[in-house]
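Minutes, project check-in
Item: structure for the 118-residue chain
Input as provided by the requester:
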Amino acid sequence: MFQNKRKLFLNKEKTRKLLKRIDEDLEAWTDLAIETFKFSASAQERWKNGTIQDKKTILTVVGTNLTLKEKRLEIKPRTPFLLIKKAIGANKFKKRGLNPEIEPKSRQENFHTFALGE
């Protein structure tokens, strides 16, 4: 009986340690996801208005295997950024063209004219 209790106690401790490690890993992954989204949210603006160093940092963080081919920079995006790209591609609003930041200028002007009645 004592042997059985000891096995149960050791199993309980092993399970407790495993759960603690899972919680720590989950917290680390959550922190990484948050930082990735924060970076992604600011990267476009920093690419447009940032310094050369900002652009180098963005390229280094976002991609691997950077190669120059026929005067074009080719980048293999890291997995988190591929997942974000895939999620954006699946966004039904983007497919319908409702994102004003990427709308062609003429369409935005047409909307402006229509909305103001000009």
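Outcome recorded: The chain has two domains: 1-77, 78-118.
No further action items on this chain.
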